[in-house]
Recover the amino acids of this structure.
């Protein structure tokens, strides 16, 4: 008996163009911004590198390890209670992992920013520029990694034969061209948020007012929680999810503007 082979659509020209544009934007955007910034502040690349270090410390060493430990504990507890996989996902992912993961991201990433900036800013003459460079490093490395991953998967999607037995690597074949364009907008908003979160932490270090550190933490955690709940629990469209970081960025800008900038 012959197995039925699933016919998968080949990548259209519009999808290829959108995928290439997304890769170029996500990788080239932060790099171009840093080139422009380094023309004003020669030490910007070093500061951005420290921002990358903050990202690695907070996300890879802290958040990923912590969430893996929590997930494994909850999964064992759920299985011991006789819950099957779907119930485990609904009960523990939606009800617990999303809020705890969001809070963990806010706490660890903003604390890493605060710790490193506290060592740097007492000797700095240009705190605004340092904050922007640090934020571009922190958010830019995430954008670059996602852009490269999108490019690699898109290339494989283009090169693989159309006839495959239902195999779709990461599901990118189901993406429409418009969703790649939306991805550019979303990542730009997230990177802007990282810059604004950093400026709030810079203000904390310069003024000694710890409330700005907690404000950055709260905005960060709220953004991740709303995005995660909307996308994973309620099935929001990518366009609606794209608006989440931009609304968060607007809130951060308004806070800085209404309160008089960094130094008050």
């Amino acid at each position: 008996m012959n197995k039925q082979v699933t016919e998968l659509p080949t990548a259209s020209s519009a999808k290829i163009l959108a995928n290439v544009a997304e890769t170029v934007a996500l990788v080239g955007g932060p790099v171009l911004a840093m080139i422009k910034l380094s023309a004003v502040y020669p030490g910007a690349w070093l500061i951005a590198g420290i921002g990358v270090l903050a990202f690695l410390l907070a996300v890879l060493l802290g958040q990923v390890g912590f969430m893996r430990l929590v997930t494994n504990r909850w999964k064992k507890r759920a299985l011991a209670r006789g819950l099957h996989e779907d119930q485990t996902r609904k009960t523990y992912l939606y009800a617990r992992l999303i809020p705890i993961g969001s809070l963990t991201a806010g706490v660890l990433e903003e604390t890493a920013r605060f710790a490193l900036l506290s060592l740097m800013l007492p000797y700095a003459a240009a705190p605004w520029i340092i904050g922007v460079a640090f934020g571009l490093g922190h958010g830019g490395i995430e954008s670059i990694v996602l852009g490269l991953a999108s490019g690699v998967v898109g290339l494989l999607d283009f090169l693989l034969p159309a006839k495959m037995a239902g195999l779709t690597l990461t599901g990118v074949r189901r993406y429409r061209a418009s969703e790649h364009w939306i991805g550019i907008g979303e990542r730009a908003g997230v990177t802007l948020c990282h810059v604004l979160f950093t400026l709030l932490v810079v203000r904390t270090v310069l003024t000694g007012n710890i409330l700005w550190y907690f404000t950055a933490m709260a905005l960060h955690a709220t953004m991740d929680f709303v995005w995660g709940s909307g996308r994973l629990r309620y099935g929001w469209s990518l366009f609606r999810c794209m608006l989440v970081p931009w609304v968060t960025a607007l809130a951060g800008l308004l806070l800085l503007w209404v309160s008089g900038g960094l130094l008050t």
Residues 44-80 form the longest helix (37 residues). Confidence is low (pLDDT under 50) at residues 1-9, 163-173. Residues 63 and 228 are 15 Å apart (CA to CA).
